[in-house]
Specification:
26% of the residues lie in helices and 30% in strands. The chain has eight helices and 18 strands. The strands form three sheets. Strands 4-3-2-5-1-6-7 form a seven-stranded mixed beta sheet, sandwiched between helices. Strands 8, 9, 14, 15, 16, 17 and 18 form a seven-stranded mixed beta sheet that branches. It starts with 11 loop residues before the first helix and ends in a 6-residue tail after the last strand. It is an enzyme of class 2 (transferase). It holds the Pfam family CLP1_P.
Length: 355
């Protein structure tokens, strides 16, 4: 299931834009910006196919983490286009940058860095780099788009708007690249939250269709993206004290700048404690958590679903389609902020500060 597919039944200004891109100096960096269901991916697919037909080398940077075309989900991905395609989901990723969630509001920095790094790689080989972005264009989304544009310095920023709602964003982005305004196509269709969730469900299911459970040695692979494992392990006396005070089952804990505890509530009542001094993580929040296997250069080799952590043995059980060799080459296991089953069912999102 895909929201967008290749079509040449587009407004005339899309053909004008295609002609313009074909005549520009290369490499050319083009960032597509618009709200949810504004037709960014349809436009990207049209432009990429048209440029390929004209003999140009095309790369796509897919940073729409909420509605990813290029797998895996919850990453920023780069693909080189070898020939005509109907949907970005047909493309094979060349490189990825882990974000770990489908809602990037708390990961503005990572989103911008991922787009920058992958665009730089793309520009070394492609004549035209097309950058797809999220429909997140209000609030923190404005800063996200600005940071991307400031880092990437696109030659062209294409804004899709319905009724002048992108005017403020145009002013924000104008210092960082030439801005072209296009109206949203009359053929663009709004999708319900349920439909978008179903699209994601199929992406998750496709990615994890040939997965297996691997054991990750956390003494050799750095656990990142979380406050867990930082500092010295708690002594038995400290664990007993915390258990007695708060009626928790303390699964694991560390003492660094503050105490960090993985716990299970033994009794359901409210606890009062100084949060800057004590950070707690509910053990159940680690179940089916998305994690990324990160290589020595900071790129994501693939993602997995955390099934279990043996804290005393420093071993993690992770479901992933990655090969044993790829898993062994990981330098970091980075914790994401979405819980998901391998069948594609999303269990919930975590706030950044929860882990």
């Amino acid at each position: 299931m895909n929201k967008a597919g290749y079509t040449t039944d587009v407004p005339e200004d899309r053909f004008v834009l295609l002609d313009e891109l074909s005549s520009r100096d290369r490499p050319l960096r083009v960032m597509l910006v618009g709200g949810t269901d504004s037709g960014k991916t349809t436009l990207l697919t049209f432009l990429a196919n048209g440029l390929i037909e004209r003999g140009l080398r095309v790369a796509i940077v897919d940073s729409d983490v909420g509605q990813k075309g290029i797998l895996p989900p919850a990453t920023v991905s780069l693909a080189f286009v070898d020939g005509p395609f109907s949907s970005p989901s047909e493309l094979r990723g060349h490189a990825h940058y882990f974000i770990g969630t489908t809602t990037p509001g708390q990961y503005v920095g990572e989103m911008a860095v991922g787009v920058k790094r992958l665009t730089d790689i793309a520009a070394e080989k492609a004549d035209v780099v097309l950058i797809d972005t999220t429909g997140f264009v209000t609030g923190a989304g404005v800063e996200l788009k600005r940071l991307k544009a400031e880092l990437v310095r696109p030659d062209l920023i294409v804004l899709l708007e319905r009724a002048g709602e992108m005017e403020y964003l145009r002013k924000v982005l104008a210092p960082y690249g030439e801005v072209v305004m296009l109206s949203v196509s009359p053929a663009a269709r709004e999708h319900s939250r349920r439909e978008r969730r179903e699209v994601r469900r199929e992406k998750w299911r496709a990615y994890f269709s040939n997965s297996r459970t691997v054991e990750v040695d956390l003494t050799k692979v750095i656990p990142g993206g979380t406050e867990l494992f930082r500092g010295r392990p708690l002594t038995e006396e400290e664990r007993e004290l915390l258990s007695t005070l708060f009626k928790w089952l303390v699964v694991a804990g560390w003492k660094g700048e503050h105490y960090t505890v993985v716990k299970v509530d033994a009794e359901g009542f409210s606890r009062q404690y100084v949060r800057p001094a004590l950070h707690t993580v509910d053990f159940e929040r680690l179940s089916n958590l998305l994690v990324g296997f990160i290589d020595g250069e900071g790129f994501c080799m693939g993602v997995g679903i955390l099934k279990w952590i043996n804290f005393s043995g420093m071993k993690a059980q992770v479901l992933t389609p990655l090969s044993e060799e790829e898993v062994e080459n990981a330098a970091e296991l980075r914790f994401g902020r979405i819980q998901v089953f391998e069948n594609g069912e999303e269990l919930g999102l975590l706030r950044r500060e929860e882990l």
